[in-house]
Amino acid sequence: MNFLSDRLGFGADYNPEQWSPEVWRDDIRLMREAGVTIVTLGVFSWATVEPEPGRHDFGWLDEVMDLLGAAGIDVSLATGTASPPSWLSRRHPETLPVNRDGVRLSPGSRQHYCPSSPVYREAAVSLAVQMAKRYGAHPALKLWHVGNEYGCHVQECYCDVSAGDFRDWLRERYGDLDALNAAWSTTFWSQRVTDWADVLPPRTAPTLRNPAQELDWRRFSSDALLACYRAERAVLQELTPDVPVTTNIMGMWEPVADYASWAADFDIVALDIYPEPKDPAAHIDAAFFHDQMRSLGGGRPYMMMETATSAISYRPPNRPKRTGLNRLWSHQAVARGADAVMYFQWRASAGGAEKFHSAVVSHGGSDNRIFREAAALGAELATLSDVAGGRVPAEVAVVHDYANWWALELDARPGELRIPERVRAHYAPLWHANVTVDVVPPEADLSAYKLVVVPNLYLCTDAAADGLRRHVEGGGHLLMSFFSGIADECDRIRLGGYPGAFRELLGLRVEEFWPLSDGERAGLSSGGSADLWADHIVPEGAEVLAAYTGGPLAGLPAVTRHAYGAGTATYLGTRPDEQAMRDLVADTLRLAGVAPVVAGLPAGVEAVRRGSRLFLLNHNDHPVHAAGADLAPLDVAVLPLRHDPAKGA
Ligand code: GAL
Ligand code: ZN
Prior knowledge:
Layout: E1 9-14, H1 21-34, E2 38-41, H2 46-49, H3 59-70, E3 74-78, H4 86-91, H5 118-135, E4 141-145, H6 160-174, H7 177-183, H8 211-239, E5 245-246, E6 248-250, H9 259-262, E7 270-272, H10 282-296, E8 302-306, H11 325-335, E9 338-343, H12 369-382, E10 396-399, H13 402-408, H14 419-432, E11 437-440, E12 451-454, H15 462-473, E13 477-481, H16 503-506, E14 508-513, E15 522-523, E16 529-539, E17 543-547, E18 557-564, E19 567-572, E20 574-576, H17 578-592, E21 605-610, E22 613-618, E23 624-626, E24 629-631, E25 636-640
Parallel strand pairs: 1-2, 1-9, 2-3, 3-4, 4-5, 6-7, 7-8, 8-9, 10-11, 10-12, 12-13, 13-19
Antiparallel strand pairs: 14-16, 15-16, 16-20, 17-18, 18-19, 21-22, 22-25, 23-24
Helix pairs in contact: 1-3, 5-8, 10-14, 14-17
């Protein structure tokens, strides 16, 4: 489904319920001035649309839909179910979510519902039905926007209803209690359960929780949120089969839900992303999330459903985006596969919790830098319609997995490893090398990739281990980091020598883990140094690329490479410094025969190929000359691809 393919979308969340009908007219005029093509309408309008249970007030929304339609502006219409109205929690306090400590959360903010609550789900579905009946045939309707950012605030609920659902989910997964006991290793600490009634959510307990229980809880909670989305999607598909359905997911370093398992339910992937203007490396993280969204949709275009025109309200001090930064970061999304650039929100709210969040129209109106820059961008995107629908080629994949993320960050691991830092450490050198990557789950089909990069895949299924092995055997290349292949999907150690899942593939055995203390560094014979972690590696066929020259494992191998089948498997037993990591990645790219999008670009210039265009993004505060183009600070060039960019700048 690629409903935006004839042009790039440009727009914002539109919340007209906060404004009077006179303001709506002004909005439409300004939207046309800014080149808006699409808005996401009514995300938080449940209380306005359904002021009392079963009584709907659609008059205002009819008018807004008609105004937008008449102006030629597409509508991504929200079902409005993200924030229940006050009457729901008054009449059904059991719909309110309960946290790990047993505290029932109160209304007065948003997303205050238990994902397993049948009452919430029924009320949400019935609102979605009303919306579909009312607007299903409206010419402005182009997309359904279900809920909003599932799991943003409430990822899980520990109430008794959720506990019951959790038990059903576990019965489905394991069949009987013996299998559950085995999966959860319950002989440890006398945790064996003999009655389903004893199976509980991982509520606050005296000390460390059963890690397999924690993991299944995260899986279950992700599925519970997905079930909410699916329940609404099902009725929308039935009533309006031609209208695509999506919900917006979050590009941020929080494993709120297993998005890879949600992807098949999106007709188009929609990303919300708020790179931090104060963070000098924000654009590298953003590039990662854009690559992830494109990959979730199997390479199809996605939408950047939300970003900020300028300051973000919940991260004080609210630093505005300096001139050019909104344009640069918006182009980055388009370069990496987005077919729409949209903001939260159209008009800055006069009241409420997020009134200091930037918008397209500010508190002072439209006579200002933010509006002018947005309008200029709208006009510019209108000239790039040939980009819409274009594909972004990638020869390298970075493996990223939510179960691994959850598992790796549980307590009582040998060292403090954090997935955001670990993934960044592998992604950034590829970004600096201007090599475009896909971001894939470990069980993905890897046949299209010359090189697969695997950051710290502690938890690993048999299917993933087999897929990675076959990738290398068939001539692919692999770069894998320490503490991979250690546990199965129930967080049980793969016995018989680390790393159980990959010993044969890597041609080595890890005898012990030697996490390094804060500030402790070990030199590397290949140059540079390492910290954080040191594997005691015993080669079993792998060649040694670098050894430790100091630290607890001085003289022992730190980096190895193993020829396996027709490919190679490079293994990193530690965390090298940034330059050493870049060198190793460059070496592995050469070995795999992967060329950059454009070779020899100045540092801080990002090159991405999309369809028949080459995007050059200058993230520097100084001008550069790159690939024949002159780029001012924070400037963008979108060039036709007239030569083979691999041949040089
Ligand atoms: C998103 C959310 C929006 C708005 C925005 C700015 O997470 O979907 O409704 O809150 O952040 O904070
Ligand atoms: Zn609950």
